[in-house]
Amino acid sequence: MKALVVVLACVCLSSCMKLVSLVPDVPRAPLDKLELVMEEGDRITATTSSGTVEILAGKGLMRTYTWDGESRTATLWARRERWNGSLGAYFAGPGEHWKDHHGIRRGVLEEGQQHFNGRAEAIAWIDGQSGDYATVHSSQGLVVSFHKVPERKQLNVVVSQIYIGGRKPSGLPGASDGKLHFDKRSSP
Predict the structure, then answer these.
(1) How far is the CA of 177 from the CAs of 45, 53, 113, 122, in angstroms?
(2) Could you tell me which residues come within 8 angstroms of residue 61 by beta carbon, excluding any fewer than 6 positions away?
(3) Total number of domains in the chain
(4) Are strands 106-116 and 154-164 parallel, antiparallel or unpaired?
(5) What is the pLDDT of residue 24?
(6) What does pTM read for this prediction?
(7) Judging by beta carbons within 10 Å of its beta carbon (0-12, 13-18, 19+), is residue 140 exposed, middle or buried?
(8) Strand order in the sheet with 106-116
(9) What distance in Å separates the CA atoms of residue 40 and residue 58, rounded to the nearest whole number?
(10) How far is Cα 42 from Cα 184, in angstroms, rounded to an integer?
(11) Is residue 172, in this structure, part of any structural domain at all?
């Protein structure tokens, strides 16, 4: 009987350790310290070569992603420091955290601002994103990358807002304004 109790205790501890390892030590930074793109109630719809994705901002860092007629939700983690230029939020997609949808069981998600000194630098960054993921951008610098990775059971979504010299740009070349819609929430 003692051996059974010891075995059960080890299994429970092992399971708890696995669960803890899925959730990093995420700071509870105030949202106003983060460089986010969306606020509660905002909705972005983007159509890339991978299909159409809709992102709905919920309370805090909660985001709902809809593609191929189904929705999945994740609460993003605040970045502690700038990573690849962004001081926004992300979700690393630990484990298979979503119910299966056409083979997708996890989301690797990111949202944040990208700040540049000049247009050429911003355009080069967009070109880099487009080389890695199916990406669309607006003439005002909203950028959405949306890509399915079936072999990893993974959905990648990156939402970025470009700033040049501290301002949102206008007239960025190569824009697909018709494939990208940002519905800002109504003011209270």
Answers:
(1) 11, 15, 19, 17
(2) 31, 75, 76, 77, 78, 89
(3) 1
(4) parallel
(5) 46
(6) 0.82
(7) middle
(8) 77-78, 89-91, 106-116, 154-164, 142-149, 135-137
(9) 5
(10) 5
(11) yes
Closest CA to 122 of 167, 179, 87: 167
Mean pLDDT within 135-163: 96
Q: Which H helix or E strand runs over 44?
A: strand 43-48
User: Tokens 């070349």 correspond to what residue?
Assistant: 173
Phi, psi of 5, rounded to the nearest 5 degrees = -65, -45
Q: Domain for residue 113, yes or no?
A: yes
- Asked, for residue 27, whether it belongs to a domain, the answer is no
Question: Is 131 a member of any domain?
Answer: yes
Domain that holds residue 99: 34-183
* Cα–Cα separations (whole angstroms), residue 24 to 11, 60, 78, 94: 22, 18, 11, 10
Average of pLDDT values for 119-138? 91
109-120 pLDDT tens trace: 999 999 999 999
